[in-house]
């Protein structure tokens, strides 16, 4: 059972899940810099919950090679 507020991630329709994730990512910096410890803890927990749900639904999501360690170092990628 989740201790965060909001509809559990597994109950969200795909578009709502994406909308919630966009909102959480858009508000992360402000919450980190100016939120109370409770607000930051809640924001972190909710973000983690919804990101895990997204990964569960999309295990084969496209990964940009530049977002990997070797890609970030400019090493050749095996396609």
Describe the fold and architecture.
The protein has a domain at 12-59. Helix 1 runs antiparallel to helix 2. It has 79 residues and is mainly α. It has helices at 14-34, 37-57, 69-72. InterPro entries: DUF6158 (IPR046156).
Write the layout of secondary structure elements.
Layout: H1 14-34, H2 37-57, H3 69-72
Helix pairs in contact: 1-2
Low-confidence stretches: none
Tertiary shape: flat
Number of helices: 3
Radius of gyration: 16 Å
Q: Average the pLDDT over all residues and give the rounded result.
A: 90
Strand count: 0
Strand content: under 5%
The biggest beta sheet, please?
Answer: none
Fraction of residues in H or I helices? 55-70%
Would you list the SSEs in sequence order as H and E? HHH
Structural class: mainly alpha
Distance between the termini: 40 Å
Summarize the structure.
The protein has helices at 14-34, 37-57, 69-72.
Give a quick set of tags describing it.
DUF6158, flat, mainly alpha, 79 residues
């Amino acid at each position: 059972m989740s201790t965060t507020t909001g509809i559990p991630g597994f109950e969200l329709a795909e578009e709502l899940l994406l909308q919630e994730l966009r909102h959480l990512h858009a508000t992360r910096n402000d919450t980190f810099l100016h939120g109370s410890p409770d607000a930051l803890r809640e924001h972190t927990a909710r973000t983690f919950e919804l990101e895990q749900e997204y990964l569960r639904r999309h295990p084969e999501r496209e990964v940009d090679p530049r977002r990997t360690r070797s890609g970030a170092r400019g090493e050749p990628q095996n396609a």
